[in-house]
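Async update (no meeting this week)

Hi team, since we skipped the sync, here's where things stand on the single-chain job. The sequence we agreed to prioritize is pasted below, unchanged from the tracker. I ran it this morning and attached the output directly underneath so nobody has to dig for it. Comments welcome in thread, and please keep replies under the output.
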Amino acid sequence: MVSLDKKLFTHNVIAESGFFAVNVLSARQLELGMRFAGMKPEIKDRFAGLQTHTAVTGSPLLPDSLAWVDCTVWSTYDGGDHTIFVGEVKDIFVSDADMPLLYHNRLWRRSEALETPTVPLQVNLVEVGLRDGIQREEKFIPTEIKLEYIKGLMEAGLKEIQVTSFVNPKIVPQMADAALLSSLLPASESVTFSALVLNLKGLERAAEAGIKKIDMGVPASETLAKKNANTTIKEGMQEMEVMAKKARDYGMKVRAGVQVAFGCAYEGKIEIDKVVNMSRRFLEMGIDELSLSDSAGLGNPQLIRRIVQEVLPLAGSVPVVLHLHDTRGQGLANLLSALKSGITSFDTSFGGLGGCPFYSNCKRKHRYRGYSLYASRNGYSNRC
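Output:
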């Protein structure tokens, strides 16, 4: 049963043809949903460029739909300015993947009723201990010891390791050997080595050192943006745009995202709209991965779900990575909330080490072992 405004073109087509199909889109098909909801007025032909299929009745079926129902019109009811079309089902298809895209209260959402994933999920872990984990350590760790850690992490099965950051060594002395460490990384076709960069200078240093994937971001807090890079959020986003283009010119993969997305120790609550808008801006830069960081450890399960529900449909096929802290003991609860909301990629740190050097109260990151055990015991395929 569908109810359509009598002024709509679709209404007239169904009324004249006597058949229709209902397509159920996945949570990752936001752009397609907006197109057919009339939210893309610049697109005159909503089927333009789409490889549709034809149902038994002749109705068009959209690509990669989660499900569809093909119907002939069995009866109609006059609803004033709307007509209610009741269909007789002629054919039906239901896939076994993903979650549906919903629109409620003027917002696109994921279903909160789906408490467990519809298919087994593969969890991707990114080990950041060599960067985030040790950056606050006062005693410099020799490069050869760091290399031993890297080899051990590789032997443990990690497929992506963030090994260092190209930052000012006067501010973060532990990263003074970034170029040297990068030049000594073991050759591997199965492991990705990445590095954090904060600005163009850091990006250029990383490229010169042979790094193939960078991580960068901007805080959703003006106070932290000032402390972290002496910029405003606007200035930071402008620089990220330049850096993303430069990184592509260097042939690098780019992960970028919103820091303190779930709350700031200096400013408190971060508006969800700000996180969503910054995420959208990053995605428009053509990045390879989007990250959302709970840098201050202020996230809670409800907030995690709310923000993920807003951001994940925007990302489409771009992976979204969560960077969580266990500062207040809610780490695994936040992890569970993120998994149920559709996130399958997470940062981890060996020994639970880590924390932003500009926060004095943010110390505990998620332990690799904690994530790995949770994933394996709850039926998730754990791709380290």
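Quick observations from my side:
The chain has two domains: 2-110, 122-383.
The longest strand covers residues 82-94.
Reply here if anything looks off.
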